[in-house]
From TrEMBL:
Name by which UniProt lists this protein: Hflx-type G domain-containing protein
MF term (GO), any: GTP binding
Hflx-type G domain span: 1-130
Naturally occurring in which organism (per UniProt): Dictyocaulus viviparus
InterPro entries membership: G_HFLX_dom, GTPase_HflX, P-loop_NTPase
Length: 151
């Protein structure tokens, strides 16, 4: 039960680390739950959580419910759970309806459909979690403010 970790630079320039935890299992025996829980330590520490659902699986809805039950079982707060980004994957091969969630994004990892939207949403939440705000400034190149920024 291992995880895969990758470095990534968001459009804002922030460097982040993506950690892909193992897939969720239904009806996990209690003797395995402790080991499974250890691999999910990354989830509890994450600034942003992304739940990628496989829409090509006929049981994707039940699997999604299992994910949320597991997240509650490891102690994730309702607030953290409500902030999860939901990415519905494999939209290129199925026409499953989008479950009405305020943050669901339809994607295809194969065709890249929706991936930029997902990355943008991640960037927004990382900035919010870090307390940073994005500002757009229009300054004349010869202004004292630009000179100050170059110092």
């Amino acid at each position: 039960m291992s995880t895969l970790t990758r470095n990534f630079r968001l459009p804002s320039g922030r460097r982040v680390v993506f950690t892909d935890t193992i897939g969720f299992l239904s009806d996990l025996p209690m003797q395995l739950f402790a080991a499974f829980q250890a691999t999910l330590a990354h989830v509890k520490l994450a600034d942003v959580i992304i739940h990628i659902r496989d829409l090509s699986n006929p049981d994707w809805s039940a699997q999604s419910e299992d994910v949320y039950k597991t997240l509650k079982a490891i102690g994730l707060s309702e607030k953290r759970i409500s902030d999860i980004i939901v990415a519905d994957n494999k939209v290129d091969v199925c026409d499953a309806p989008l479950v009405p969630t305020s943050n669901a994004i339809r994607i295809s990892c194969k065709t890249s459909e929706g991936v930029q939207t997902l990355i943008q949403r991640i960037d927004e939440l990382v900035l919010r979690a870090s307390g940073c705000k994005r500002r757009k400034l229009e300054l004349k190149f010869s202004s004292p403010a630009v000179a100050y920024l170059y110092k």
